[in-house]
Design goal:
Layout (H helix, E strand, L loop, with lengths): L1 H21 L3 E5 L4 E8 L2 E9 L11 E8 L4 E8 L4 E10 L2 E8 L4 E10 L1
Antiparallel strand pairs: 1-2, 1-8, 2-3, 3-4, 4-5, 5-6, 6-7, 7-8
Length: about 120
């Protein structure tokens, strides 16, 4: 009996984790209006790929990709690292998703230099 209850509970937790992790997937518009990205699984990681970049935006172009190795946590939070192959840089990354709003915060130099960006989900 207890084995069945434990198995059902474990399955329910796995389902919640998968649904929770999917919250980040989709199309997002950057708060400054300079870019739109598609966030989706790519292998074992999650990738954010530029689908549109405002003309004249320096150092960014369509197709640029950020490879995120992040894990879901409580309340729409994700944490881990992100690799930017265009700049050959790795960032400590935290992401918070609340409904159709997302905030990303990337840090370098042992967390001394950080930048946050707000995003809105788009259809």
């Amino acid at each position: 009996m207890w084995k069945v209850v434990i198995a059902a509970f474990t399955l329910a937790l796995c389902s919640l984790s998968e649904a929770h992790a999917a919250d980040i997937d989709g199309l997002w518009a950057r708060g400054d209006g300079n870019a739109k990205v598609r966030i989706a699984p790519c292998g074992a990681d999650i990738c954010a790929t530029n689908t549109w970049v405002k003309p004249g935006t320096p150092k960014e172009r369509e197709g640029d990709r950020l490879v995120m190795t992040i894990k879901p946590g409580p309340n729409g939070a994700y944490a881990g690292t992100a690799f930017d192959p265009q700049r050959d840089m790795t960032y400590k990354l935290s992401v918070t998703v609340q409904g159709d709003k997302m905030t990303t915060k990337g840090c370098i130099v042992a967390g001394l230099l950080c930048k946050g960006i707000d995003w809105t989900r788009i259809n």
